[in-house]
Amino acid sequence: MSITREEVAHLGRLARMELSADELDHFAGQLDDIIGAVARVSEVAGEDVPPTSHPLPLTNVMRADTVRPSLTPQQALSGAPAQEQQRFKVPQILGED
Q1: CA distance 23 to 31
Q2: Three-state SS across the chain?
Q3: What is the Cα–Cα distance from 35 to 49, expressed in whole angstroms?
Q4: Which of 50, 52, 55, 76 gets the most CB atoms within 10 Å of its CB?
Q5: Counting beta carbons within 10 angstroms of the beta carbon of residue 8, is it exposed (0 to 12), middle (13 to 18) or buried (19 or more)?
Q6: CA geometry: angle at 78 spanning 74 and 83, to 5°?
Q7: What would the pLDDT profile of 2-45 be if each residue is shown by its tens digit?
Q8: 78 vs 20, 69, 70, 92, CA distance in Å?
Q9: Torsions phi, psi of 35, nearest 5?
């Protein structure tokens, strides 16, 4: 199966990209190579090989949440040049709407 220039042009329109004639030829060849590589990988995987997203089994690597001593809001804001309602007060950079 080979990718045609028309199919590349269609993909370009979907991606809102304007492609020149040279780019259409170039990308058609590249996409054809990519599809061929994916097809070869699909041929290698047998019925006994389960689909995976990672070659090694992964477990949750995040630590458990534990409550530890930390700064009070007053301590955290003690060096702030401006504060309001226990928050850092900064100049507004976006409009109201």
Answers
A1: 12
A2: CCCCHHHHHHHHHHCCCCCCHHHHHHHHHHHHHHHHHHHHHHHHCCCCCCCCCCCCCCCCCCCCCCCCCCCCHHHHHCCCCCEECCEECCCCCCCCC
A3: 21
A4: 76
A5: buried
A6: 80
A7: 889 999 999 999 999 999 999 999 999 999 999 999 888 877 76
A8: 59, 17, 14, 21
A9: -65, -40
Distance (Å, whole) CA 85 – CA 60: 37
pLDDT tens for 71-85 read 999 999 999 999 999
Give the per-residue pLDDT at 16.
95
Angle, alpha carbons 45-50-54 (nearest 5°)? 95
Tokens linked to 90: 């900064």
pTM: predicted TM-score of the whole model, two decimal places: 0.46
- Which residues lie across from 84 on neighbouring strands? 87
